[in-house]
Amino acid sequence: MEIVEYTYSQFRKDLENLPPLPSIDAILAIARGGLTFAHHLAEKLEIREVGCIGVSSYENRRKISSPSFSTPLILPSGKEKILIVDDISDTGETLSTLLNHLKNLYPTRKFFTFTLFVKPTTSFLPDFYLHTTPHWVSFFWEKK
Amino acid sequence: MEIVEYTYSQFRKDLENLPPLPSIDAILAIARGGLTFAHHLAEKLEIREVGCIGVSSYENRRKISSPSFSTPLILPSGKEKILIVDDISDTGETLSTLLNHLKNLYPTRKFFTFTLFVKPTTSFLPDFYLHTTPHWVSFFWEKK
Predict the structure, then answer these.
(1) For A97-135, how does the pLDDT look when each residue is reduced to its tens digit (9 = 90+)?
(2) Alpha helices (runs of H) in B7-135, residue ranges in sequence order
(3) Which residue of A has its CA nearest to B37?
(4) Which residue in A44, A50, A72 is closest to B31 by CB distance?
(5) Which residue in the set B32, B50, B56 is minimally distant from A39, CB to CB?
(6) Distance from B141 to chain A by nearest Cα, in Å?
């Protein structure tokens, strides 16, 4: 499979060229993939409230199962507009499962989704994303 | 106040020169400051389970209050050895308050603490840390 390198230097450029985003109260990072992006976004947008949720569907580049949540989905009170952040929407299953779950748990809150990458074959298109690629993306935080 | 710049390039060097760490099952990142470090550490150490907890005591470089936890402290079951990760131990109040709280809630689990920086005046010395400085540290993820 062809591999695209996503470097820190490209990431910095991306942070300088974010799309217009709605006003948000909190960021929910999908762990592990979304953590670094969520952290930098939170600094950039001056959002102090950042939570995270473990969702895993990959193991060594193979899709192993439906997304499962490793921590309870408890959102802080008073935070109505929440931006869910991940590195990539590949099949889209992680984001769509999480989003449905959150909407059921918190029907009055507003959720937005933002990823760095989407695959053209994703079944779920995030509200915001920066790049589209059919290739495997090697992110700088995965560097051994 | 004198400012020390902590760059991404220094961070990469630090990741190549980590101290020997005990075997751990999960990482708990202190948000926001510890998120990027926790993410990179988790990749490096191949730890899939990463949670985070919001703790804040700073607002615009001034210490404003005792640390308060913005999300419930629920640790995943079956994860006995947990590495708590933050960017800096300044007064040490965040880490020591969190650690005491966790030890009360989960008396049988083993907790370790790891920060990139400590201030020489900290009242709490993490189990692991990489740099000591009396200055204000400007981290690359805070870059506007």
Answers:
(1) 899 989 998 999 999 999 999 999 999 999 999 999 999
(2) 8-16, 35-45, 93-105
(3) A36
(4) A50
(5) B32
(6) 5
**Residues facing residue A108 across a β-bridge:** none
Q: Which CATH class is domain B3-14+25-57+76-142?
A: alpha beta
Residue B65 has pLDDT above 60, yes or no: no
Q: Are A8 and A139 in contact (CB under 8 A)?
A: no
Class of domain A3-16+26-54+78-142: alpha beta
- Provide the token pair at A5: 């390198």
Length of chain B measured in residues? 144
**Residue A5, phi then psi, degrees to nearest 5:** -85, 125
Would you call B49 and A70 a contact, using CB atoms and an 8 Å cutoff?
A: yes
Residue A55 and residue A67 in contact, taking contact as beta carbons nearer than 8 Å: yes
Alpha-carbon torsion angle A90, A55, A27, A25, nearest 10: 110
Q: Which residue of A has its CA nearest to B51?
A: A52
Instruction: Decide if A23 contacts B17 (C-beta within 8 A).
Output: no
